[in-house]
Write a structure and sequence with these properties.
CarO-like, single chain, alpha+beta, signal, OB fold (Dihydrolipoamide Acetyltransferase, E2P), 6 strands
Length: 132
């Protein structure tokens, strides 16, 4: 009986903290980022998981879902899941706006984990947005 109660307590404790493990939802990130338009240089100084919006130009694809974004203040790596970059055919030279979270790494450069991306359509001069 004691083992069963202990198992129920541990399971309940784990379930109550699941939302802590999951992090912010994409909607929360987009809402917070709308109030936090920053430059690349500013983004590099922000704490982990800060929601941000940046704009710039894609310099190059560095690896699978990883790209380099450049603005007038510098360059930063961005991670754009394939369900976002494939439909838009993301490539070097594209002018984009990205919404995501700052992702700090011990011993490696800060990056942005993108949840929404917009690309300037040169023909219509409008932003085309893609999100998960």
């Amino acid at each position: 009986m004691k083992k069963m109660l202990l198992a129920l307590f541990v399971t309940g404790s784990m379930l109550s903290t699941t939302s802590t493990w999951a992090g912010k939802s994409d909607q929360v990130i987009m809402t917070e980022a709308a109030q936090n338009m920053v430059t690349v240089a500013e983004a590099k100084q922000l704490p982990d998981e800060t929601a941000v919006m940046l704009s710039g130009t894609i310099v190059r694809k560095t690896h699978k879902d990883h790209y380099e974004l450049k603005d007038s203040s510098g360059k930063i790596g961005i991670e754009v899941d394939s369900d976002l970059w494939r439909p838009m055919g993301l490539k070097a030279g594209d002018k984009v706006k990205v919404i995501g979270e700052v992702d700090t790494h011990t011993g490696q450069p800060t990056t942005i984990d993108v949840v929404q991306i917009g690309r300037m359509d040169n023909q219509s001069d409008k932003w085309l947005w893609f999100n998960r």
